[in-house]
């Protein structure tokens, strides 16, 4: 840190010019980067995915391309014939099956009939981008309703309206309000400048990456909003320490050197920890998660570089002038957090018991977690004709699983159809009229929605039976099951690698073996609570209508838990490093463990709370994206950050340090008690 601060001091103008050039280039690259993002959710090597690929290539649609359903509330053979003819005329090459040809597509009371349409799928985020408008015109002319997963997504907003710039501006505005309250001066602008430079530079690098590998569209939201929060967090820590050193009488340059030696060191280790946890996604055999890992690695790395180079250059150039009007004391000590620290340290064991019980209670719902896609009922609850139609269909007795059928390729269509049709929970199975030579195609659907427990069990039972008979099974249920197997079957060694590397880093950063182990245990509790409260809200349906005007999803999207782990694990370690580094510093400065704990909490409590609030607002911005899966991710991240910054870092982490006493400072090698930086000692002993 001393070498970096000396370099920035000597070349501040060149540093500013370099970051300005990167930001300008990033502004040019950002729209090109977002245009080059892909919507690929492939699972190479997984049997369900490979079967889906064969189905789409051979038949032009199906597999993971779900059907569009035309719901007729006045079914008749004549209307069915006219409707099928109109669909075939509007969509050349579409595969169509009507209730007139297959009795299973007509309700027992004769009041509901369904025409199942598989238009030819086109590459891109919306495989039926052209087909849906054409079918809407046909439906209007024949007085039927278009529904299905794709129609529900479009009606609910889907990816439309998910403008990353608008979400970032919203998150930035919330961050500015918090920063103004923290600094009470124009210094609040500096963290936002660091965030802007970091985000634009990262988009520049992502644009370069898109020329080498596929990058998922999801990363634009994560990059902008998580990048916003992380960069501001790091800048907030350094600027706060710089003002503290100014208050002790140091000149701006000396204050910057001291801040880099203490806060800058914490930022470096925090950023590396976040980067490692996100980079672990690269090791998973799922291309879109790998792309999230690549981008996630860049977010903290670029944020750290900006905080350690651009920010000191700005502080040396305009820091003094921006610290106006000076409405806040330079002393970071918070009376509120000092009182909290004193209270919890005095009653440490009661605090440990109470905090642990709260976290375990929050985590309890995770034991019933179910991975899958949002249910029809959840998507329908956003309103609209497609939602009404899918609700009618689900209650008609035809089978709620019709929107996500099980596709089976077999050399014995009739035998396989008879085999799977008799399985428990199966509403029907039909031999699909393909007109192609070779293997036949069976489409089966379940009575229950395949995102519910009974639906998942029934789909899995069909797959086992069909594969035992020599068939190949695809469709959305098989794709989801393969994703879970590919990701979570490999997660144990990825998580183990993260834990080992993070522990080694924290041992180096904190000069202790006990503190890193404690931090990892607390992270488990924190992550468990984040998962549990997300399951309680989105799977079990407590508060989704109040908070999101939508019914419960019924399941947690398959990729959300691993993404939440990668982001929250690293972000939680940020706060742990901020807190423990300050406690270590106070202890090395001669204070006993209890006093060092209270002083460390008092001097970081306001900082961690502000940083967490900024990230919380960024994730609230992410929750404005109309896609249900992104809302679930945003909920887990937002609540996870708040739980971690309050219960874990505000109570449990400090009281455990106090409870462990001198054991906190145990290490494998003898380490003399000394402060984290010599300049910090000078400031205290003048």
UniProtKB/TrEMBL annotation:
InterPro entries: MMPL_dom (IPR004869), Mycobact_MmpL (IPR050545), SSD (IPR000731)
Signal peptide, first to last residue: 1-35
Family matches, as Pfam families: MMPL (PF03176)
Subcellular location, principal: membrane
Domain SSD intervals: 175-317
Transmembrane segments: 164-183, 190-209, 215-239, 266-288, 294-318, 349-369, 490-507, 519-538, 558-578, 607-626, 632-661
Membrane topology: Multi-pass membrane protein
Subcellular location: Cell membrane
UniProtKB keywords: Cell membrane, Membrane, Signal, Transmembrane, Transmembrane helix
Name of this protein: MMPL family transporter
Organism whose genome encodes this protein: Paractinoplanes aksuensis
């Amino acid at each position: 840190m001393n070498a970096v601060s000396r370099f920035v001091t000597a070349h501040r103008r060149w540093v500013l010019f370099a970051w300005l050039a990167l930001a300008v280039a990033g502004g040019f690259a950002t729209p090109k980067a977002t245009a080059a993002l892909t919507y690929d959710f492939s699972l190479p090597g997984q049997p369900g995915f490979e079967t889906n690929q064969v189905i789409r290539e051979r038949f032009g649609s199906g597999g993971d391309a779900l059907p569009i359903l035309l719901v007729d509330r006045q079914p008749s053979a004549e209307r069915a014939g006219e409707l099928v003819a109109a669909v075939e005329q509007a969509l050349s090459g579409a595969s169509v099956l009507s209730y007139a040809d297959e009795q299973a597509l007509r309700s027992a009371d004769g009041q509901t009939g369904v025409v199942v349409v598989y238009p030819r799928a086109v590459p891109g985020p919306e495989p039926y981008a052209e087909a849906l408008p054409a079918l809407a015109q046909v439906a209007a002319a024949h007085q039927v309703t278009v529904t299905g997963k794709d129609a529900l997504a479009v009606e609910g907003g889907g990816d439309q309206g998910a403008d990353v710039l608008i979400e970032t501006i919203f998150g930035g505005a919330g961050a500015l309000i918090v920063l103004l309250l923290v600094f009470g001066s124009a210094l609040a602008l500096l963290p936002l400048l660091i965030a802007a430079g970091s985000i634009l530079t990262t988009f520049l690098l992502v644009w370069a990456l898109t020329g080498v590998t596929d990058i998922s569209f999801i990363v634009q939201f994560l990059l902008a909003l998580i990048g916003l929060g992380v960069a501001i967090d790091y800048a907030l820590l350094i600027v706060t320490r710089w003002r503290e050193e100014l208050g002790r009488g140091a000149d701006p340059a000396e204050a910057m050197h001291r801040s880099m030696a203490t806060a800058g060191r914490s930022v470096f280790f925090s950023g590396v920890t976040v980067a490692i946890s996100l980079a672990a996604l690269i090791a998973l055999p799922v291309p879109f998660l790998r792309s999230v890992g690549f981008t996630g690695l860049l977010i903290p790395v670029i944020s750290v570089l900006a905080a350690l180079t651009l920010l000191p250059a700005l502080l040396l150039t305009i820091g003094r002038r921006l610290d106006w009007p000076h409405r806040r004391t330079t002393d970071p000590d918070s009376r509120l957090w000092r009182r909290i620290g004193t209270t919890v340290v005095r009653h440490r064991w009661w605090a440990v018991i109470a905090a642990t019980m709260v976290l375990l209670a929050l985590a309890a719902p995770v034991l019933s977690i179910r991975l899958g896609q949002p249910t029809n009922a959840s998507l329908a609850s956003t309103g609209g004709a497609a939602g009404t139609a899918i609700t009618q269909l689900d209650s008609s007795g035809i089978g709620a699983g019709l929107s996500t059928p099980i596709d089976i390729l077999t050399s014995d269509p009739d035998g396989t159809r008879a085999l799977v049709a008799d399985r428990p929970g199966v509403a029907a199975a039909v031999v699909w009229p393909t007109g192609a030579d070779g293997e036949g195609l069976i489409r089966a659907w379940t009575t229950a929605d395949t995102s519910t427990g009974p639906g998942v069990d029934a789909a899995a039972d069909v797959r086992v039976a069909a594969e035992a008979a020599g068939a190949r099974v695809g469709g959305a249920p098989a794709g989801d099951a393969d994703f879970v197997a590919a990701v979570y079957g490999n997660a144990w060694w990825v998580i183990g690698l993260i834990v080992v590397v993070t522990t080694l880093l924290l041992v180096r950063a904190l000069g202790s073996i006990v503190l890193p182990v404690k931090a990892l245990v607390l992270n488990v509790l924190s992550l468990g609570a984040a998962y549990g409260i997300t399951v309680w809200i989105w799977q079990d349906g407590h508060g989704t209508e109040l908070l999101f005007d939508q019914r419960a999803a019924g399941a947690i999207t398959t990729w959300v838990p691993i993404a939440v782990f990668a982001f929250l694990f690293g972000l939680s370690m940020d706060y742990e490093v901020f807190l423990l580094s300050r406690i270590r510093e106070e202890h090395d400065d001669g204070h006993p463990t209890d006093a060092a704990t209270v002083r460390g909490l008092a001097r970081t409590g306001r900082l961690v709370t502000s940083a967490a609030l900024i990230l919380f607002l960024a994730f609230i911005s992410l929750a404005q994206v109309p896609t249900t899966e992104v809302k679930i991710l945003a909920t887990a991240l937002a609540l996870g950050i708040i739980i971690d910054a309050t219960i874990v870092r505000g109570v449990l982490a400090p009281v455990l340090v106090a409870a462990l006493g001198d054991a906190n400072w145990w290490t494998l090698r003898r380490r003399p008690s000394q402060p984290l930086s010599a300049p910090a000692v000078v400031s205290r002993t003048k």
